[in-house]
Design a protein that fits this description.
The complex is a heterodimer of chains A (290) and B (132).
Chain A lengths: L6 E7 L20 E5 L5 E4 L5 H7 L7 E4 L5 H4 L14 E6 L7 H6 L17 E6 L3 E5 L2 E7 L7 E7 L2 E6 L21 H4 L4 E5 L4 H4 L10 H10 L5 E4 L7 H17 L7 E3 L5 E4 L2
Parallel strand pairs in A: 3-4, 4-5, 5-6, 10-11, 11-12, 12-13
Antiparallel strand pairs in A: 1-2, 1-14, 2-3, 7-8, 8-9, 9-10
Chain B lengths: L7 H11 L5 E5 L3 E5 L1 H7 L3 H4 L2 E2 H8 L15 H8 L3 E8 L5 E13 L2 E11 L4
Antiparallel strand pairs in B: 1-2, 1-6, 2-3, 4-5, 5-6
The chains are: A alpha/beta (290), B alpha+beta (132).
The complex binds zinc ion (ZN) (2 copies).
The site of one zinc ion has 6 residues of chain A, from α2.
């Protein structure tokens, strides 16, 4: 009998923009984006390769499942951990790195701008693992037991959001996303809201919540969301659980606790269950059931 | 299943056009007029919200675009259509009628919205030629 389809989610990096090594953020964590999904067949899907991917790599020593790294985009905070991901130094390992298309070269060429001299001590061709680089195809495709859907979303530069689903369990990942730019999330038709189809009725929505509402006013167009917009988006999409992600480097644990209270109040006011909103914290694990 | 989304290029274009005061139209790659802004609504006599999306053929039937010499311009020769079909900018001067009004002359510029995965549609800007 086929195993019950579910997805195990572990957050390895939840901070946006730049890693933070200040004791004031240790509870939520200072590593930049990396989320690991374990599918029902044991395969790993890694969302982004921020500095959080280093610790994930340490847990994979001796494992042999296929590894897929899905990059949302190539901003440094989402790729800076690649060179410190141990499986890339394992010659027996097969790794596929997926990412968004762009007009200025293949995914491999674009990544090599960072992973080459003088910025890096190691060139991509020196990585021992068998690595392939693939631009995500449009629409939905199959990755082992899961369906993956990628779509361009509103950020700066070509940026994908992802939806990974197995059966009725669906995880939507929109780490850098500003759907409210230039429009009302309350009144726009759903099909005109960036990321909507990916997030629609997701079991878990991991969404950009970088700014407080007042901070957002000074950052319009920077590609990130105010917490209240993230929640409005989640509500429009009828996401069942919301994890606010990509914390501003300046937000301490105490700040994030305050933001969590506000977010829960706001989610309740929007008609949701306060307990289904949380602020992302490193090492958080959850099981997404069908 | 998930719902459907317009391509990001169209979403961004629509958001931009919504904040422009110059009459602007948005067509998708299937030749549907999917949005026009308030300034375009004012120019042509009906707000987008009253009409909703429609094909360019229907739009042509309503506004009957024609050349200086009076010849009708077929839908496939409109800047909207050419910009999407050939993925290139198109500029053209022609005449059309607003809702039941007299003919007016306009300059139009169409810009294809060609993203990494191909042409998703076009933005078309209209400029009424004064004194025409
Ligand atoms: Zn980021
Ligand atoms: Zn970014």
């Amino acid at each position: 009998m086929a195993p019950e389809a579910n997805i195990q989610v572990t957050l390895w990096g939840v901070r946006g923009s730049i890693p933070v090594a200040d004791p004031a953020v240790f509870r939520h964590g200072g590593n930049t984006p990396c989320v690991a999904l374990r599918l029902s067949d044991g395969a790993r899907v890694v969302l982004d390769a921020g500095s959080g991917i280093r610790a994930l790599g340490d847990t994979l020593a001796g494992t042999r499942e296929p590894l897929h790294i899905l990059l949302s985009h190539l901003h440094l905070d989402h790729i800076q951990g690649l060179l410190f991901f141990k499986p890339l130094f394992d010659a027996d390992r097969e790794i596929t790195i997926w990412g968004p298309p762009a007009g200025d070269g293949s995914l491999r060429d674009r990544l090599s701008r960072y992973l080459s001299a003088p910025l890096s001590p190691i060139e991509m061709r020196e990585l021992p693992a068998r690595v392939s680089y693939r631009t995500c195809p449009p629409g939905t495709w199959r990755l082992g037991p899961a369906l993956v859907e990628a779509a361009l979303v509103n950020h700066r530069g070509p940026t994908f959001g992802y939806r990974i689903s197995e059966g009725r369990a669906a995880v939507c990942y929109l780490p850098d996303h500003e759907p409210a730019l230039g429009q009302s999330l309350e009144t726009s038709e759903a099909e005109w809201i960036s990321g909507y189809a990916l997030a629609r009725r997701a079991s878990v929505l991991i969404h950009d919540g970088q700014y407080t509402d007042s901070e957002y006013q000074a950052h319009l167009g920077w590609g990130h969301s105010a917490v209240s917009d993230a929640l409005l988006f989640a509500r429009r999409a009828e996401a069942r659980r919301v994890i606010l992600f990509h914390h501003d480097p300046a937000h301490s644990d105490d700040d994030l606790d305050g933001l969590c209270d506000e977010a829960r109040d706001r989610w309740s006011a929007l008609g949701g269950d306060a307990n289904s909103v949380e602020i992302a914290a490193e090492q958080r694990e959850l099981s997404v059931e069908p | 299943m998930t719902g459907s989304n317009q391509p990001l290029e169209l979403i961004l274009a629509r958001n931009l056009m919504s904040s422009l005061a110059i009459p602007s139209f948005l067509v998708d790659n299937a030749g549907m007029l999917v949005f026009y802004n308030a300034a375009a609504g004012e120019l042509l006599g009906k707000r987008f919200e009253e009409i909703g999306r429609r094909s360019l053929a229907e739009w042509s039937a309503d506004h009957a675009p024609f050349e200086q010499d009076g010849r009708e311009i077929p839908t496939e020769d409109l800047p909207f259509t050419i910009a999407v079909r050939e993925s290139r900018p198109v500029h053209r001067r022609f005449q059309l009628r607003a809702d039941g009004g007299p003919p007016m002359e306009i300059e139009s510029s169409a810009v294809p919205l060609a993203g990494a995965s191909g042409c998703q549609g076009a933005i078309v800007v209209f400029w009424p030629v004064s004194g025409a």
